[in-house]
Amino acid sequence: MSQFMDLNLSRPVMKALEEMGFESATSIQAQAIPVALTGRDMIGQAQTGTGKTVAFSIPMVEMVNTDEDYVQGLILTPTRELCIQVAEEIGKVGLYKRVRTLPIYGGQDINRQIKALKNRPHVIIATPGRLIDHINRRTIRLNTIKMVVLDEADEMLDMGFVEDIESILKTCPDNRQTLLFSATMKPAVKSLAQKFMKDIEHVAVKAQEVTVPLIEQVYYEVPERQKLDVLTRLLDIQNPELAIVFGRTKRRVDELMNALITRGYQADGLHGDLSQRQRDTVMRKFRDGAVDILVATDVAARGLDVSGVTHVYNFDIPQDIDSYVHRIGRTGRAGKSGIATTFVTPREVEHLHQIERITKRKITKLPLPTIAEARLGKQRIAMDQLVDAVAHNDLSGFKNLAEELLEQHDSLTLVSAALKLLTKNTSEVPVTLTAEQPLRVKGPQNRSKDRRGPARPGKQFGGGRNTAGRSGGKGPKKDARPRKKEPAFTR
Ligand SMILES: Nc1ncnc2c1ncn2[C@@H]1O[C@H](COP(=O)(O)OP(=O)(O)OP(=O)(O)O)[C@@H](O)[C@H]1O
Ligand SMILES: [Mg+2]
């Protein structure tokens, strides 16, 4: 464990880190920060949830000269939610240095952004599409940029942002510093790096495994039409603090969210067809714990850091192995443990084994949960609620009635009745979901349904070359128009 103290950081940054409650630097922070502070270009790779955001936020904040009122730093992120989150994190690191930050993302009123730009932010955090819009309108100029960070660089390339990113990097001064971070890398990133970075230092935290050991990984072989019952049984048994359930398509996410609500769970959905206002509301409710189940497409797979996510469920097996790594990485963050559960239909079992082979990690097969186990789980939840009420509620207004009841019935019967009333009885309400086709990505004719663009040798199910992915040469896709970026069948 390294101390931040050893990294030669400025006082305001040290004070901010202290306030954030960080005692020591994580491995990637200890390794990447000194390199980045020298001004060198860097590729940083470390497992999910290991603090890469702070690893680039510190050098960024240290680099900014707050005596100057122009944009000096740029951070690109693949999704809007991540853009907001990274802006908040860097805002915290830069608080005492008074670094002004501004998130710029699609779906938000552009005039509001133009107005906010008048406050002369030092660091802009942006999704590529919207940034390009601003560059074209000349409302943002990048000729004063000293440092660029690409967070989740591989994902941005996968999403078809390659042309946008190239044109953004071309607009920045040649002598800028470029940092690139992700938990997963692939050849396309290397070729981007070769084109736009100089004298690159590779900082990779040597991990035994691609996935985080603190995440327990299990799977269930379950026929498509039984998935919902199995999920609700698991939710009853496991009673997650917060859970993310990943579905393959937007339709799937909508249907699943409604099904869970029908069965009495507090769920909400996130995907690219929602308005930005809806997306913001969903994320806020999930972060506040007002909903405890977030049903989402892969739009939530990358970078999102919500504390309290104890469980991730892959209701549908992800389209590729990197997506698996990032999805399950929404739990087991910052040293906490988590459980990642994947459903595979009988025809998809081979995909699961491929994930095991490539991540070099066994995923344990478990027997399907029974109705009896789920019933017991629900009763335990009811019991917890009752015990919680005993501990945290002022019950004085109920005591007279309670005494009256105890004159007529014995306490065992009364408590049992209270438990019965508290036990959820909606978990088996029949709901039908539209069936998803099993994952098949072997032949080119199936690839048209593939979320991912370029071939990723050894990482993609089936291994063959992709012919119709998202970066199929159809030009840049703007995040201002999420529908284009997120094919209906994928997100
Ligand atoms: N030095 C530290 N000590 C304790 N917690 C930390 C430290 N640095 C970061 N964290 C916390 O760890 C969590 C994960 O950090 P972060 O989101 O940066 O991970 P990441 O490596 O970017 O993961 P991903 O690959 O999923 O994007 C955050 O809640 C962050 O506040
Ligand atoms: Mg991250």
TrEMBL record:
One Pfam family, short name: Helicase_C
The keyword DNA repair is assigned to this record: no
Segments of skewed composition (Gly residues): 460-474
Domain DEAD-box RNA helicase Q: 2-30
Region spans: Disordered: 433-491
InterPro entries: DEAD/DEAH_box_helicase_dom (IPR011545), DEAD/DEAH_RhlB (IPR044742), DEAD_box_RNA_helicases (IPR050547), Helicase_ATP-bd (IPR014001), Helicase_C-like (IPR001650), P-loop_NTPase (IPR027417), RNA-helicase_DEAD-box_CS (IPR000629), RNA_helicase_DEAD_Q_motif (IPR014014)
Family: Belongs to the DEAD box helicase family.
Designated name of the protein: DEAD/DEAH box helicase
Lineage: Bacteria, Bacillati, Bacillota, Bacilli, Bacillales
One GO MF term attached to the UniProt entry: helicase activity
Enzyme Commission (EC) number: 3.6.4.-
The protein's enzyme class: hydrolase
Keyword presence, Ubl conjugation: no
Keywords: ATP-binding, Helicase, Hydrolase, Nucleotide-binding
Domain Helicase ATP-binding, chain residue ranges per copy: 33-203
Motif (Q motif): 2-30
Domain Helicase C-terminal: 214-374
